[in-house]
Amino acid sequence: MAEMKQEKGSLSINSENLFPIIKKWLYSDHDIFVRELISNGCDAITKLKKLDVMGEYQLEEGEKLQVEVIANSTDKTLKFIDNGIGMTADEVREYITQVAFSGAADFLSKYKDKTSEDQIIGHFGLGFYSAFMVADKVTIDTLSFEEGAEPVHWECDGESDYSMETGTRTERGTEITLYLNEESLEFANEYRVKEVIKKYCAFMPVDIYLSRAGGEPQYQTVDEEDLREDDVIAETIVEEEKTEEMENENGEKETVVVSPRKNRYKINKRPELMNETHPLWTKHPNDCTEEEYKEFFIKVFHDYKEPLFWIHLNMDYPFNLKGILYFPKINNEYDSVEGTIKLYNNQVFVADNIKEVIPEFLMLLKGVIDCPDLPLNVSRSALQNDGFVKKISDYITKKVADKLSGMYKTERENYEKYWDDINPFIKFGMIKDEKFADRMKDYVIYKDLDGKYVSLQEYLDAAKDKHENQVFFVSDEQQQSQYIRMFREEGLNAVVLPHLIDQSFMQRIEMEHEGVKFQRIDSDLADIFKEETSEEDKKALEEAQEKLTDLFKKALGVEELDVKVEKLKDAETSAVVTLSEDVRRMQDMMRMYGMNSSQMPGGEGQTLVLNTNNQLVQYVLDNPEGEHTEMFCQQIYDLALLAHMPLGAEEMAKFVARSNKIMGLLTK
Fold it and tell me: What is the third-level CATH fold of 530-580+597-666?
């Protein structure tokens, strides 16, 4: 067969400045060229397998198909070698010299009636040219699978000119060599390349091996039974027989062989397998064990805290999507939580946390999603076709809601066990996503004062005789312990909502359930806490309120102080501070956004409720001019405020000093 004459020409590039564009901004991460070139090799092998299945080519029995990457720090090169379909000279002209023409797309159109699109990665065209981000020169040596095909050598120095001639390759497949530029010599280091392969190619569907050339040789030692035909033996190591003197069952000493004589072999270090070709998400959920799910979680996320549970996504129609979403133990404050959801395209890593595919609230989870149908742009870094992507996002949201609602219905005990960990995620989702909120509205539960979990309806039904459509809640069980005690004594219940996100979540629930109102237990004193009063009592309370208001305003130096006087059933309580629900919510919102929301004494919405059934309050009322009355007023107020909110630094210092002074009085 006549040898091909050297051919020179210009690449079919629409823009004469394409190479600078590729180098500067086509790919945001320069290490991505490794993914692109390995993907091309995987595609070449996948095509060959499909031709074998269709009977248009016959693979050798037991033939090992693989991509090999060789880093050479001495020559400053990086090679990508596959034993796939290879290319003819015409195919090199078509696929390599015509930029933005995809070999995979052409292959599919040619064989569209004979095979399926599954597992052909590279329909992106420009992938090969990503090599010029890091290389001054790139060469291709390839030999097609076609009978009688000639090897082809192609090279280009990063300008728009190339040369092509008959090559020397004798084995089917393609070898791409990158002559790295000075700024990219890191990629001649095998450990740097290993890091990149693990990042992008850890689950590609074809075996990927990494080895090193140049520099000092590396070795490993294997036993004789582990020796392979292709191993290069550098040294045979003979380990002599080892014996020990031991006592037998008759009490006699004898020499026993504990390790027989054997040969071990020092061999050239084998190429290292970099990937797992059948990741867990590609399997049917019924074929996966709990242990496998946990091991996969650790392997991918390096997180040794066991996930709570997981969802295995497995969909073929109307689009192909597979994946696993894990519910990790997460922080209570949703704004400081960040999960990781890795997006794959045909087992090729694309990016973490792509917001167009993953709803914002799901970013709290950890997981992998593989969707071959994703409409990625040429650099696989951005999504196109918003309508299609929205369907994928909606499907993922639905599957998460289905899992949670199903657990509520069939595994209520487990659902309650996980609730403290997953409720910030569910609440965040309901605030952010209307469809998720609609699916989950009947499956939100609340922990009550006894530590039991109840739904909203269960709470309202249990309390309807005492307070209809009102949900009392506690945000800090320690801080609000006095109010909790009063509630318990009257047989009232409340739910515990301690998280920052609960402020927004309550408003969401109130919007969805007309007439339902959430109210913190220190926002007002219900009539159930007060004694029944006669007309005569009411008149006496009005007089007491007038006197005590003047006394406390003077003692505290706060003219705007709002004071109420009641006869509370609990005589031990001298006073409580209440803060209207609306004002409190405004303060919480200000805190959430980092604004100053400190509640000064007598601030708007705050009321001091004094209990005339209490001995100390009665003393103040009876002794308005007493020597210590002013001090008692200040102490009563601070005690009430402490049960409501933390005191400021200056107020706390005064409170401690005053408490010591009062105890000193008791000793006299």
Answer: Four Helix Bundle (Hemerythrin (Met), subunit A) (1.20.120)
